[in-house]
Write a structure and sequence with these properties.
Blueprint lengths: L1 H22 L10 H13 L4 H8 L3 H14 L2 E5 L7 E5 L1 H7 L5 H13 L2 H17 L3
Antiparallel strand pairs: 1-2
């Protein structure tokens, strides 16, 4: 029962996220393909990853990751940053153009769901739920 509920919630979050992500994909010059939108989304989730971290996260070769990143830089959705003293390595960061394209980073459905829970649940229930959710979150490897 717990497993089924967790999978159901996860699936709903994924579907809502995909709806939002794909709803912003447009067929015009400079827009993102679905693969590019996912790549920028992963970079956004990672913060300011190195190209190697990005490649490792999505399971592609570093040259393939570099190619994808260079295309996204050319379209203006991400930018390269120096990674520090080692000039051989770069970090990438999502530009404001992506957030204007994809909408805000805050997921409205999560804000609405948590606001509803805060209205309908007791402080004790919310504290227990938050504790259990934090434990579940901590157990998921990334």
């Amino acid at each position: 029962m717990l497993y089924d509920t967790a999978v159901s919630l996860y699936d709903k979050f994924r579907l809502l996220h995909y709806r939002k992500l794909f709803g912003n994909i447009r067929e015009k010059d400079g827009s993102l393909s679905a693969t590019e939108a996912f790549a920028v989304d992963v970079i956004s989730l990672l913060g300011t990853p190195t190209i190697k971290q990005f490649a490792d996260t999505i399971g592609i070769s570093q040259p393939n990751a570099t190619y994808k990143i260079n295309n996204l830089i050319a379209k203006g959705y991400i930018e390269k940053l120096p990674a520090g003293e080692d000039r051989r390595e770069s970090r990438v960061r999502v530009c404001n153009r992506y957030f204007l394209y994809a909408g805000s980073r805050e997921d409205d459905f999560i804000a609405e769901a948590t606001a509803r829970m805060e209205r309908e649940c007791t402080p004790e229930e919310l504290a227990l739920f938050e504790k259990l959710l934090a434990r579940l979150n901590d157990s998921v490897p990334v």
